[in-house]
From TrEMBL:
GGDEF domain boundaries: 339-475
Domain PAC: 256-307
Matching PANTHER family: BIOFILM ARCHITECTURE MAINTENANCE PROTEIN MBAA (PTHR44757:SF2), DIGUANYLATE CYCLASE DGCP (PTHR44757)
Protein name: EAL domain-containing protein
Domain of life: Bacteria
Ranges of residues in domain PAS: 181-242
UniProt keyword annotation of Nucleotide-binding present: no
Gene source species: Dactylosporangium fulvum
Amino acid sequence: MSEMALERHEGDYRARQVRLATGIGVGVILIGALRVWYDWHGDPWLVWLLVAAAVVQGALAALPWRRIIFRSWTNQLFIAWWLTNVVLLLGFAAYDTAALAIYPAGVTLVLASTAAVASGRAAAGIGAVSLAGYLWLATSRDHPVDTTLAALTAALMIGVTWFGVRTAGDRRRLDAARRLAERKVEALLENSSDAVIAVMPTGGVTYVSPSVRTVLGYDPDYITGDVLADITHPDYLPTLMEWWAAVCAAPPGVTERAESRVRRGDGRWMHAEVTGTNLQHDPSLGAAVLSIRDITARKELEEELTRQAFADSLTGMPNRALFRDRLEHAIARNRRGGGRVTLLLVDLDDFKLVNDSLGHNAGDQLIATTALRLHQQLRASDTLARLGGDEFAVLVEDVDELEAMDLAERLLTAIRRPLRLGNREVVTSASIGVATAKAGDGDDGPDPGELLRNADLAMYAAKGDGRDRYALFDPAMYADILREAEERAELERALALEEFVVHYQPIVDLPTSRLIGVEALVRWEHPVRGMLGPGAFIPLAESTGLIVPLGRWVLRQACEQLAAWRTEFDTASGIRVNVNLSARQFQHEGLVEEVAGILRETGVDPHQIVLEITESLLMQDTESTIDTLGRLKALGVRLAIDDFGTGYSSLSYLKRFPVDILKIDRSFVDDIDTVDGDATLAEAVVQLGRALQLQTVAEGIETAEQWSTLQDLGCEYGQGYLFAKPGAASEISSILGGARV
């Protein structure tokens, strides 16, 4: 088992003390040799014998004391050694009467050596033996030593002995405190998450913390400068060597950090953060201290977060952020090389229907399969990304327009292939927008945002042309979108400034021409273009969603006007006001609550309000439509099917709708008096209404012949230019005064 750092430090300390004691012993022997040389006048062999003894004792200092100091027999050896020195001094002083003065000095040196290494008990014992020897010498002489001198010498020896005992005790306590502190440090380092290694600039390792076992998986004694280089990943070694040179050359105390990959003892590579502090100025170290921390978990987390930030979780392909970055790099690259970049935006057609009908799991499967099919049509150098939802982007470089068109066709063909989702086989399609940027487009070359916008416009053009096709970007598309944006802004401004007005067209009882109701029709009183009919702005309002606030405003205006008429005319209590609901309004989640709120705030009788819905709208999401109609009906309003006959509703569905009125489309009325077929269709609608106990209203009556024919067919009510054109509320007020049109 390797020595711990604590044992090595303790061994070094005690070895130094033993060598000090050895030096003291050599000094005592040499003092005796000098006495023999000058005063005994004996043979030189005795002097040389003493010198040889000093050399032998001095040679003891060369022994590997750090390794043998902890042997169980060393304490007994030291005590025997010191007693031997005291006995030799005693014999020397007994033989040489003049050497009595040497004895206390020699004993003092021996006691000092004892205090430096032995325990307090051993120091007291050696002191007692030394004092007893001196008293024997002082009293056994032919000429006894002066009492005062003997007492002073004995007191000195007692003091030296006491000082040695105290010194040994203090040293023992200090050693214990030092060992405790070192054990704490060792325990902390052993359980530290960092491996601490002290390395000299030459590469020598002077300290290795026990935690190197857990952090790196190596035994501390195995770590050397060469090992540190061997376990560093070759890709990081040159950079790390430069970093190490910078640490060694840095000012004292300066800390530098670096990242590396290190091979653990079990062969696995780990990511490591290495902190180096230059402590060469510290005489106790003379090295740079390296702290190595395992950051593999952190790096893996960073990589995972990066993957999540730049990769689509469903398909694993680049997401919008990463695609935008690659697009920017591709444009910059081709700007320098004079090439071209082509972008294809792929949007699946009717993807929402798959989610709604088959569930989101089926939708995810469709997305993943589509991604795979698209990828199979691309080159290794091309980039495929999922931008979100059912939208993909393809980035290709160095292809001309014909090649881009061929790629778009291949992508469409791949997407059309049947796919089994659950127990159903699904065939889907996509719309693709293609935009190309060539070097030199614009002052600084093509802009990534502009290229994405162009491809997006082309994709929507493909959808507008019927879907399942691709379209190449044309600058005219941008002009169209700008115009639409301007028109939307103008429409929003008109809503805010209330530039709209409501006109009313009378609905009459066909047999009597009596006014029974009006249809509210919105007009735009444009500050520049004058009065605009619905055809000029309703399609835009419908496509932009502004039809919802506009329709809400029309309903409120109509209800307020009805309330005003009822206050002014008694005859107004029997009329009804028809208000059209657009498809967007009908699908609006808060429609029923908004209608209820307007009825409550205006105080009108709900039974006087007729909400008109087109026949084609009724057939969309039938169950939801029936639910919404039922909730509206519960408010007390009446419901009418507008443009009836132009849709595709079946009788079974029609019976389920809680409607009150059928409005015959004007296309059946236009030639009702000349073409037998139209009269037959109009009659069928009237008969259907009668069978279902619904009222019928004919639209677009412009001639007396049409009026007469509709009466003969049994139609109850009608409206059209024959009776009155749509007019301001004041015109309806005039009619209400006479109750006839």
